[in-house]
User: Fold these one by one.
Assistant:
Number 1:
Amino acid sequence: MRSCYLGFTAALFFTSILCENPRYGDKLNKPTLYPAGTNIFNPTAGLRDGLMANLHPKNGSMDQWGPGWIPQACTAPQSHKDPLKLADTEVWNFHYDDCPTPWIVCYNKKSGYELSTVFDLFGRLPVKSRAYVRTLMILPQETGQAEGYAYTWNQDIVIYGNDIDNFMVYIHETGHALDLGGAYSDDGSWLSSSDDWLTSYDQDKLVVDGYAQTNQIENVAQNHILDSYDVNVPGGFGMLNGGWRDIYHQYATLDRKQKKADDRLVPGGECSKRIPNDEVIPFPSSWTSRVMKEKKRAVGEKPNVDIAPGLERITPVEFDTRELCGRYQASHKH
C-alpha cells in the first residue's frame, strides 16, 4: 500500500489501490475541476502566486550540527544507504521566531537547491501546521525517479529534486502530517476516512484535479492547498476559479475542521505543541570512517533535541504515505 506525491512534471498512470478501506483507498471516479494534465501544484493553476504573496517568510536563523551525529530517521531514505551520498548530508536546526524548539533538517548538498530556499518555504507554513512535522529531509533526484517526488513518513517530510522549491508540495505534505497525524480529531482518527469527509465528498460533483482522484488521502492533502488559498488570499478560491461550487463541500469541511483546531492553516501565534524529535544516533559504523574522512573533523558532542519545556507533546503516529494507498508509476515525463 503506497502513496506519494510525484511532481507536476510527470504524467501519472496509477496501479491498483491496495488499501483496506475502499472508501478512502480507492481511486476516485468524479471528474476534475482542473483539466487533465493540470494539477494545482502547477503554477498555471494560479494558486501558487497568491499563496506566496500572502503566507510570508518567518524570521529566524539556522545553525549546523557538529559532525558525527544524525537523526535516526534521516538514515532511512534510499539515497542515504550509499556512504558517498551520506557524506554529502548535513544536519541543521531551523529556528523560527514563533517556536522555541527548532526543526531538524537533513540536507544533502547535492540536492540542487540552497538551504535558504528550504528555510524560506518551510517557514511560510503556519506554525500550528508546522508543529505536526517532525523532521525535514532534502535530497537529490534519484536515478529513474520522476521529476519531483515527495512523501510523508512518520510525520517526517522527504522532498527530492525539483519539488524542493515548490511551496505547494510543502503544503500538500504537511496536509498529510495533519490528516494522518490526527490533528483534526480528538481521538487521533484521520479526516480522510471520516464519515464527515466522505459525506462532504458525496455532495460535490467534482474533485479538484487528477492527483486528488488518486484516493481520499491525496484528495484531503490537495484540499489543504485549496483551503490554505481560500482562508489566506483575499477573495478566496471563489475569485480564482468560477467552478468552486462543484468542490465546495470538500474544502469547506476541511476549513471547518481547521478552524475548530485553532485555525491551523492560518498564520499567527506561537507553537504550543510539538512532536518529540527522533533519536539521535552516531553515523552508522560502516559509514563513519568515510564520512569523517570527507569532513576531516572529529565527532562532536551529541546534540540535545529535547523539545522546550512547557510545550505540549504531540503523540507521534507511524504511517508512510508511500504505503497507505497504492504504488504509483510515472510512465513518461513532459
Number 2:
Amino acid sequence: MKRGSRGFREMVSPNVALTTADLGPIAAESLNGNFVLADNRTATAISNIQLLAHVDLDLVNMVFIMGINFPETRLVKRSLEIFYGVGPLVSQRLMARFHIHPTAKVGSLANKQVLDLTAELSSMTIENDLRRQLRDNIKRLRDMGSYRGRRHALGLPVRGQRTRTQTATANKLNKVERRG
C-alpha cells in the first residue's frame, strides 16, 4: 500500500465498532464523544464508538524520539542520522551501546531502548546547540582577527585550499555569515 494513499475510513468498514483501546496511544476519547488524535485533530464519533474520520495510517505507527515522530518501518540507524550532529559513526556507536542490531527498525525497539536513546541524545550536543556552538566559534575567530576568521568573513577557503581556481564550494559554505 502506498504511503498516505488510503485513509483510516477506507481501511475499516463503517459498521465496525472502534474504541480507544483499538486505536491505542494515538487517540483518547473526550467527554463529548469525539476522538482526539495525536496531532490535536478531532474525529467525529457516532454513538461514541464508530469512528468516521480521515486518519492517515502513518499516524498510527509512529515512534517519538526527541520531539520527532519516526515511522515504525524506518531503520534506527537512519532515524538517528536525521539529527544534526549525529552521523553514521555516532549512530553506529549508539546502537552498539544499547545492543540494537544494525538492521533493526524503529518499531521493533523496546520502550526501554527508546528511552535510553532519548536520554543519550539529550545529553549530547546536537541540533540547535551544536549549530549555535559552531556559529559562536566562527564569530570568535572573526572578532579575534585571526587568519581563519578573516577567511570566513571574506567567504574564502579556510583550510588551505587553492584559490586560483575552484572556490565555488568554499564560497557556498562560507556564505552563512559574510561581512557582518
